[in-house]
Specification:
The complex is a heterodimer of chains A (about 290) and B (about 325). Chain A has one domain (about 5-290): Thiamin diphosphate (ThDP)-binding fold, Pyr/PP domains (Rossmann fold, 3-Layer(aba) Sandwich), CATH 3.40.50. Chain A is built from ten helices and five strands. Chain A has helices at about 5-20, 25-50, 55-70, 95-105, 145-160, 180-190, 210, 220-225, 235-245, 280-290; strands at about 85-90, 165-170, 195-200, 230-235, 255-260. In chain A, helix 2 (about 25-50) packs antiparallel against helix 10, helix 3 (about 55-70) packs parallel to helix 4 (about 95-105) and helix 3 (about 55-70) packs across helix 9. Chain B is α/β, with parallel strands linked by helices and about 325 residues long. In chain B, about 40% of the residues lie in helices and about 20% in strands. Chain B has helices at about 15-25, 45-50, 60-75, 85-90, 95-100, 130-135, 150-160, 205-220, 235-245, 260-275, 295-300, 305-320, and strands at about 10, 30-35, 55, 80-85, 110, 140-145, 165-170, 175, 190-195, 200, 225-230, 230-235, 250-255, 275-285. In chain B, strands 3-2-4-5-7-6-12 form a seven-stranded mixed sheet, with helices on both faces. Chain B has a five-stranded mixed sheet with strand order 9-11-10-13-14, with helices on both faces. In chain B, strands 1-8 form a two-stranded antiparallel ribbon. The chains are: A alpha/beta (about 290), B alpha/beta (about 325). The interface of A and B includes residues 128, 141, 146 and 147 of A.
């Protein structure tokens, strides 16, 4: 199990304290800057390792950064505090974005990212709960994180705890039936402390979701399962922060975050081939420039 | 061990499971039960009456069942996830692997009505593959209580165990076989009868039949050692290798397929460390015909007579 980077954790605590009182629009610039740094680390990590899922990493980065830096009540130095908020990344193949975010928050040292996918590294291609602090449950096969998040939210309710549970789902992932089992359970139990974010980038491994197996009308599906549905621009940090800060009232909340796969790098954006393509050295230079603007 | 040959009283492990879970829940508020519309078939009606909030029913949804269990464990609770063994282990196998074992979530998986307990309901409802499947999953102890005494011990052990576990709870009534004070520990078999000619290693519902067989053999002058293996994962390798070294051979008996359960585990262990004559009794790789549990156990050779015959066969080969 990796351990916290104390200096990184202190910087993270300071950032959280600074952002906490700010209105979403005021907090957004700092979140944007952090997200660019996370994308740069992720890009270089995937390039070094020769594998990864940059397309989905970049569509989910703004969601993860907003949650960790400005919403979740978590402490990288004590990652297992009973009353922490929980985040489950159900789309586990975007581990790169999660690792880079966790490292920026001080859950472990940023130079640990250099080991991504190397022999014996804690940083597997998919996140492991027993190796990486901040990972609440191991994910990878799709359709696993959501039921676990429902169980976490149920535990909070049974214990009378105000802690919140967030689960980040891929859109293609919603083709797995287990998600809809979980959606039914959450609404049956009225788990208003649970918020599910759908990274709606419209693409899955081989094609558009709507060409592969249609998800629309997606908002209506969630609503019919008894969820409060919100739709936001998944790259607009102010919108993300505003919606994440507001728990549901009586029902669980589904946030459909409209995103772009490969967001931030022009030649990757909305291109299906960048699901798990690895950039060349030249492409990395170009991408780093775009991500530094 | 005269009990084995007398008309012995039969006892209900499901009742022992339910009563123990209620007793534990009174002591420890972290204990919760999770089921898939199986409140009745998991014998959890009384639990629900006493702890309505702590009885979570996810409906007919086994993937959700196991995932929710892992989430409850993440939140600091101790979930007993209970469902008919074929659906719990078959439908939710990947959840067991990823959410429970790989994530090391403190979930107690309770496989109810395992083996061929559902007799005439047919192969869809038989759980004979679960031992093969779950033995293949790392870091997941697989316990098979043989009687109510061991069922009580299994539930208490699992509740105190900081990691995940699978308990295979027998459905049809069985005689008491476990001496008072016997340990219940991963990797520790319980020797129920001593003997140096042949060893019978059994699990779960087959243990009482193994004892009866050993009693028959004793009357014939064959000393049969009987081991209740209790955990098919991790195995008691010391007891098995000692038996392989000291006796003419080993008979294994389990209400499961022979492809990857107890017999296969004993075969793999002994072949590598202490080759021994083996007779592996269980269900061959086939779907059962229609019939009651008793019919099917007879059909597949899982009776006292078949176990004794296998031991005699070993003795006959050893004498050549």
């Amino acid at each position: 199990m990796l351990t916290a980077d104390p200096a990184g954790a202190r910087r993270f605590a300071a950032l959280r304290a600074r952002l906490a009182p700010l209105a979403p629009a005021q907090a957004a610039p700092a979140l944007r800057e952090l997200a660019s740094s996370v994308r740069r680390d992720d890009l270089q990590m995937v390039y070094r390792a020769g594998l990864g899922h940059l397309g989905g990493d970049f569509s989910v980065t703004d969601i993860l950064v907003t949650l960790y830096a400005a919403v979740l009540n978590v402490d990288p130095v004590c990652p297992l505090l009973a009353e922490r908020d929980r985040l489950v990344l159900s789309k586990g193949h975007t581990a790169g974005a999660l690792y880079a975010t966790l490292a920026h928050c001080g859950f472990f040292a940023r130079d640990e990212l250099d080991t991504f996918a190397a022999p014996q590294s804690a940083l597997n291609g998919h996140p492991s709960r027993t190796k990486v602090p901040g990972v609440e449950t191991s994910t990878g096969p799709l359709g696993h994180g959501f039921p676990v998040a429902v169980g976490i939210a149920l535990s909070a309710r049974l214990q009378g705890s105000p802690r919140r549970t967030f689960v980040v789902l891929g859109d293609g992932e919603l083709q797995e039936g287990s998600n809809w089992e979980a959606a039914m359970t959450a609404s049956h139990y009225g788990l208003s402390s649970l918020l599910a974010v759908v990274d709606r980038n419209g693409l899955q491994q081989g094609a558009r979701t709507e060409e592969t197996k249609q998800l629309e009308p997606l908002a209506a599906k969630w609503a019919s399962f008894g969820w409060e549905v919100r739709e936001v621009d998944g790259h607009d940090h102010a919108q993300l922060l505003d919606t994440f800060r507001r728990p549901g009232t009586a029902r669980p909340v589904a946030v459909i975050a409209h995103t772009v796969k490969g967001k931030g790098v022009s030649f990757m954006e909305d291109r299906v081939q960048w699901h798990h393509k690895v950039p060349t050295a030249e492409q990395v230079q170009g991408a780093l420039q775009e991500l530094s603007l | 061990m005269s009990q084995a040959t007398q008309a012995t009283a039969l006892h209900d492990c499901r009742r022992a499971f339910a009563d123990t879970l209620i007793a534990l829940a009174r002591e420890d508020e972290r204990i919760v039960a999770v089921c898939n519309d199986s409140v009745g078939s998991s014998n959890l009606t009384a639990f629900k009456a006493e702890f309505p909030d702590r009885m979570i029913n996810v409906g007919i949804a086994e993937q959700d069942l196991v995932g929710v269990g892992a989430g409850l464990a993440n939140g600091g609770l101790i979930p007993f996830v209970s469902a008919a063994a074929p659906f719990l282990t078959g439908r939710a196998l990947e959840q067991i692997k990823v959410d429970v074992a790989y994530s090391q979530a403190r979930v107690v998986l309770c496989g109810q009505s395992p083996g061929m307990a559902y007799g005439e309901l047919g192969p869809t409802h038989h759980s004979i593959e679960d031992l093969s499947w779950l033995r293949a999953v790392a870091d997941l102890p697989v316990a098979m209580p043989a009687d109510p005494v061991q069922t009580v011990a299994a539930v208490r052990w699992a509740a105190a165990n900081p990691g995940p576990s699978y308990l295979r709870i027998p459905r049809f009534p069985v005689p008491d076989v476990t001496p008072p004070g016997s340990p219940f520990r991963p990797g520790q078999a319980i020797q129920l009868m001593d003997g140096n000619d042949v060893t019978i290693i059994a699990a779960g519902t087959m243990v009482s039949r193994a004892l009866d067989a050993a009693t028959l053999l004793r009357h014939e002058g064959i000393g049969a050692r009987v081991l209740n293996i209790t955990f098919v994962e991790p195995l008691d390798t010391v007891a098995i290798l000692a038996a392989a070294a000291q006796a003419a051979g080993i008979v294994t008996a389990e209400e499961a397929t022979t492809t990857g359960g107890l017999g296969a585990a004993v075969a793999s262990l002994t072949a590598q460390h202490q080759p021994a004559r083996l007779r592996i009794l269980g269900v061959p790789r086939s779907f059962a015909p229609t019939g009651s549990t008793a019919f099917l156990l007879e059909h597949f050779g899982l009776t006292t007579g078949h176990i004794a015959a296998a031991a005699r066969d070993i003795m006959a080969h050893a004498a050549r």
